[in-house]
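Researcher: Final request for today, and then I'll write up notes for the group meeting. The sequence and the SMILES for S-adenosylmethionine follow.
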Amino acid sequence: MSTLLVAYRASDLFERGRHGAKRSSSLLNGDTTCHVLDIYQRHAIEKTHHAKVVCSPHLPDGPWDEIHFKTGPKLMSGELSLDLLQEISRLLGGDLKPPRFTLDFEGKERDRNALLEKVVGDPGRVRDFSAKWRTSVPGIEPIELTSFPGCFCHRRPDDGGLALAEVVSRELSALESRPETLNLLDMGCGCGLVGFLVASAVKGVNLVMVDSHSRAVEAATLNSNNLGISAEIILADNGTPERMDGTFDIFVGNPPYYSDYRIAEVFLETAKRALKPGGVCYTVVKNDAGLRPVQERFFPSVEVIHRRGYCVLKSLNRA
Ligand SMILES: C[S@@+](CC[C@H](N)C(=O)[O-])C[C@H]1O[C@@H](n2cnc3c(N)ncnc32)[C@H](O)[C@@H]1O
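Model: Predicted protein-S-adenosylmethionine complex:
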């Protein structure tokens, strides 16, 4: 019996045994594959369970006897839920009923039913949730980016990302002397907003992009091809490979700020490792009070540049 578990996190895959002891869920018994969109989740599941895990932007083809889907408004956007449910419906030939399909919904019954009804009630309709939108920084023609549900930012540019792109483009364009090429690392690139804007505004920028989310990597790869801006795009949750240590002139990062700055720390550790002596690290945050002391642990000084209601934190990597 081949089973696919969609969007379960490591913590969802425990149950209590007869004497109350915590153990891996019986869902993992047999020929079960877990699908995740973010490589961080893959590593978390592999660390805590014996499980086969696939991390990819779309669900693996199967064939599957059974699919279980974990979702709810606090777990993912409605668009992503619907997009994944459409994929599941295709994989099961439209059979979205037990025993082949289980919707493990965290939330209100009426929201659960409304989600199911959108696909079951209209089986012939396949919605395309990708979006194309235009964005720019001062001095360049707008560029067009494509994004998908689950990838950041979807449908419109994020103001923090735009603030970062504007500051970095302005500063690099104003440099009086600089090498012919500048190696720029865009960590947590999402669909590539910051990196592609800077590379469009500043000549000679050589891009490396990293994101832990497979749909971000999918979108950034598509955007690189569509824009004709070459970039090495890496799926990783622990920064760049060792071979890239000390090779970057510029680091840009708009990290997520949930989890008490732990992810921001991973970004800054990577910046410290990846930058050449004399390289510059730029991060962006709404309010600098929380991030500033974290950035100061990696770099001796932090300059705050205000833009679009955000703070861009700039640090020089001294040798
Ligand atoms: C706030 S979004 C910024 C996206 C884009 N740079 C922008 O400004 O629009 C943060 C991004 O970091 C990614 N991310 C989260 N943890 C990560 C990690 N450990 N390594 C790499 N990327 C990560 C997320 O998937 C997301 O795309």
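Model: The radius of gyration is 22 Å. The chain has two domains: 2-120, 131-316.
Researcher: Thanks, that's everything.
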